[in-house]
Amino acid sequence: MPDEPCRPRDDVVSYPTDCDILSGYRQRNETLRQQQELPEPLRDRAAAISLVLFDVDGVLTDGSLIYSESGVESKTFHTQDGLGIKLLHLAGIETGLITARSSEMVTRRAAELAVTYAYQRVERKLDAFKEILQRSGRKPFQVCYMGDDWIDLGLLRRVGLAACPANAVPEVQAACHFIAQRTGGHGAVRQLCDLIITAKGQHEALVQRFLS
């Protein structure tokens, strides 16, 4: 059944109504769907995901490490990536971080985003992955992981949905089911979150939450 058109307005207010905004989203989504539907194997993999794990440097950040004169390290995170992770939580999907480095900023970001699992200073990411599987009760096919470099290859080859940003090294791209159009730290994580939410049929319901 097609959506009912928005009712004509008698006022002269310039800003759009909730109906106008939602109608715009629907038109945009339909255009995107017609332009590039998700391949069925990718959609099926994404629909089965209930836990998403991320590398940090090069995925949640652009990989840059900035040090002050006193040796304090800083990182830059993208707000759209952060909202994407929060949207996963609203969709009932757990999240976690696995990183080889250790940083107070990552601890803070993990707390801000309320991720369930946060593993830092990990030499063998597969060991952390096995522990998370045990703690969560998940099977590998229910887990997605996004990484960008060689250290991520072992884990990427064992999850149900392997993903990477656009600037991941060639070997990682070859191992992934989904390669974002955006680079690490610049919206790649958000694209992955949107993919999973859409595959689970929850995109429009989540948009509606922000309109009400």
From TrEMBL:
Its EC number is 3.1.3.45. Keywords: Hydrolase, Lipopolysaccharide biosynthesis, Magnesium, Metal-binding. Its cofactor is Mg(2+). The keyword DNA repair does not apply. Gene3D superfamilies: HAD superfamily/HAD-like. It catalyses: 3-deoxy-alpha-D-manno-2-octulosonate-8-phosphate + H2O = 3-deoxy-alpha-D-manno-oct-2-ulosonate + phosphate. It holds the Pfam family Hydrolase_3. PANTHER family: HAD SUPERFAMILY MEMBERS CMAS AND KDSC, N-ACYLNEURAMINATE CYTIDYLYLTRANSFERASE-RELATED. Homotetramer. Belongs to the KdsC family. This is 3-deoxy-D-manno-octulosonate 8-phosphate phosphatase KdsC.
